Amino acid sequence: MSSFNYTIAIDAMGGESSPKKIIEGISLFLEEDKEIYFNIFGKKDLIIKEIDKYKNISTENCKIINCETQIEDKNSVRDAIKVGKESSMWKAIERVKNKESDLIISSGNTGALLVISKLLIKMIDGVDKPAIAGLWPNFQGVSVVLDLGANIEFNEKNYVEFSKIGAELYRSIFEKKDPRVSLLNIGSEEIKGHEELKSAFRTLNANKNNFIFKGYIEGNHIKDGDVDVIITDGFSGNIALKTAEGTVNYMTTEIKKIFSSSLFGKICYLFSLPLFKKIKKTLDPRKYNGGIFLGLNAPVIKSHGSADSFAFFYSIKLSAKILRGGLVKRIKSNFENG
Amino acid sequence: MSSFNYTIAIDAMGGESSPKKIIEGISLFLEEDKEIYFNIFGKKDLIIKEIDKYKNISTENCKIINCETQIEDKNSVRDAIKVGKESSMWKAIERVKNKESDLIISSGNTGALLVISKLLIKMIDGVDKPAIAGLWPNFQGVSVVLDLGANIEFNEKNYVEFSKIGAELYRSIFEKKDPRVSLLNIGSEEIKGHEELKSAFRTLNANKNNFIFKGYIEGNHIKDGDVDVIITDGFSGNIALKTAEGTVNYMTTEIKKIFSSSLFGKICYLFSLPLFKKIKKTLDPRKYNGGIFLGLNAPVIKSHGSADSFAFFYSIKLSAKILRGGLVKRIKSNFENG
């Protein structure tokens, strides 16, 4: 197996249409990248049935580890910890803990994934809390936004720590030397915002950072792409992300309604089909699938529960980038020196 | 002047392209509603020059009050209070304080408008803080969301108070007997969110409310229209609103780019023009222009600084609805009994 750079542990049972979409996602990934080895956790018979559909998945590039149970979305985190030790999610995380895999991806219960990862993989020394980061498209490319919901209470230290961690994430994915980092706020003036945010602003402004601190950013400017890393507390970040998702869905649905509610509309749609395909491709949210748990001793990736195989494929691509970019090592170097 | 139901005070000097857009907005409004009288505050010569362009504005339906100074967007709230006493904004608010107008609209400095309104018009007895509410389109119509930025810190009492106030706002605009009210949160389960929010949830659940309490709502479900009133703290609310605005702008721009970057695209666009016009009309954000300051002894409406005449016209329409719906009286009745 010397041709493999990295091993990814995959919880094949979480989310909708699993393990079908998971295996299809792996197959799509293997079409373009053969240097990752997979450890696949879940019901062996179901997984083998899916793997048999694809020529490019075999015992040469994956190993199936049978797990009879799985953590459901409806399970509380407490229950998940209590009764989940034999589940596909737990076993996959354990594999990373034991250094037999470099990263884990799951489409399952977010809360359980976060808590079990913290329990087994543990926080990097010096990092206070884990954060969930996500990719956010903008006019110039993609930025990363964190925290998207791991922590609803934030203090000054969290903002400063997550600025460092977020900058390393951006660096490892996009290979940019000096990422530009901003704090999400409700105004661009220094006097706006609550005390924790304002004191984080002052600290980041005074610090010699290994990124470019760009001050505050407002929600309507994330799209501009003038900032690479956007830091916010988990409450506001989660609300911003979900509101943006809802807005995309609202607009898409209203536009579709107008093009499908008359014969003329349907003709226009067919006539413009190549353009609609291009729009769909440009705005496709599946390309940004994958919540990245940061601050742990190994990367943990949460794929959206409702993600399809194409979206899952993108979360594997993201995982490979993160591994090749040396994310965890980069983050650690900030806290050894600091 | 017995044919007029209400008098609206207008600060004609705030925002971009004022007073031009303001006067044009008033003229558009008078095309369809002749029962409102206007007190227009600002530089008299500039205002008269604009009024002369329209046949339907005259001394019969408006009075101009000359104000030589104006509060600029760049002014701090402190400066605005100190030196702004002769400004168009201050004078217009004062008019409402003196009960010579029923409501004030301004496109100017939001912070100054809020603070001067609090100072002169004062809070309704029993209401702790003012809130800024806005209209939010959804699949079934329009909902109202508050707070959009007046208060960045929230306690349990604020959530409960704003639920009552928001329900009255919805009732006065949309004439619905039992509005459905939800708290914006990062999950729909009872255990999610911070302590203030959770205790507000418990209180609202236990209370006998004069609205239907629907529990928590997540950002991606605002669009569904299953809830009429969405309550959130001013920090998250402002971020949600601006992020939604940014997302609409991002999508619109990307779609335009694709239709305008080739000859084929331009032909498709021309061919489908009636549909694009319909889309533009359906998604037109100008129809939702107007931040409504709530909790004061008179309604104060903030029109977006960059709003055009059409958007300003909509904020006057909204103001007329609020006055006819008896908003302030409705809110007061909640706090007299409570």
What does this structure look like?
The structure is a homodimer of 338-residue chains. With 338 residues, the first copy, chain A, is of the alpha/beta class. Helix content of chain A is 46%, strand content 17%. Chain A has an eleven-stranded mixed sheet with strand order 3-2-1-4-11-10-5-6-9-7-8, sandwiched between helices. In chain A, α1 packs across α2 (44-51), α4 (88-97) packs parallel to α5 and α6 crosses α12 (327-337).
Helix content of chain A: 40-55%
Q: What share of the residues of chain A does DSSP label as strand, in percent? A: 15-25%
C-alpha termini separation of chain A: 38 Å
Number of helices of chain A: 12
Keywords:
homodimer; 338 residues; eleven-stranded mixed beta sheet; alpha/beta; 46% helix
How is this structure best summarized?
2 copies of one chain form a homodimer. Chain A is an alpha/beta fold.
Give the arrangement of secondary structure elements:
The structure is a homodimer of 338-residue chains.
Chain A: E1 6-11, H1 20-32, E2 36-42, H2 44-51, E3 62-66, H3 77-83, H4 88-97, E4 103-106, H5 110-121, E5 131-138, E6 141-146, H6 156-174, E7 180-184, H7 195-206, E8 212-217, E9 229-231, H8 234-260, H9 263-271, H10 273-283, E10 291-294, E11 300-302, H11 309-324, H12 327-337
Parallel strand pairs in A: 1-2, 1-4, 2-3, 4-11, 6-9, 7-8, 7-9
Antiparallel strand pairs in A: 5-6, 5-10, 10-11
